[in-house]
Amino acid sequence: MLAKRIIPCLDIRNGLTVKGINFENVVDVGDPVELGAKYAREGADELVYLDITATHEGRKLFTNLVSSISEHLNIPFTVGGGIDRVEDADQLLSAGADKVSVNSSAVRDPGLIDRIARGFGNQFVVVAIDAQWKNDRWTVYINGGRIATEKELSSWALEAQERGAGEILFTSMNHDGTKKGYACEALRELSQKLSIPVIASGGAGEKEHFVEVFEKGEADAALAASIFHYNEIPVPELKAYLKKNNIIVR
To answer: What is the model's pTM?
Structure first.
């Protein structure tokens, strides 16, 4: 069995790590380079950086930041936010990112997954999916969870895999921010249907939730933000707990 991965997520706005709720009441929680280096020292397996204000004007700032992050990190990191062209992916990978994450842009233009995978390889492409359980189905949303689409979670994840995605990052909108645990049933269904790794996101609040998401949810990796940023559950403490519970971690 492959070791399970712990992945802190850092939202970036104007070059700073921030945390908020639906992009409101956003507060600065630290320098992204220093914070990333800290998580790497503590034993995080990977990091995800999301540019939450990715605009054409802000792309250069974010690319410069990615270069700086790359110089100070010794673990893989993924970057996402506003990537809607192969050229965007090229810029960020050239700046030192290990993978790129696409979300809304891939829903609008599924061929983007094919093009990035052809250009750089499947292992470089993470397809992030935001979905909400509503009316007895997992509906896929875009634009930061603001716009519902016709797509359903499992079928879209399967299409993304077929098009060349190397991983799926699934965020349950129902669980996100609740700190009551991950969407384990949906994650288990995804993990059993897909042949590529599934990263769980949304709902982490207790160390027990990570055991549940790996055992019941069969996720390959678990992503969280606030609990790490505010040192509610330090990475070393979490990994020690997982080992005690017979979860294989690095």
So the answer is: 0.95
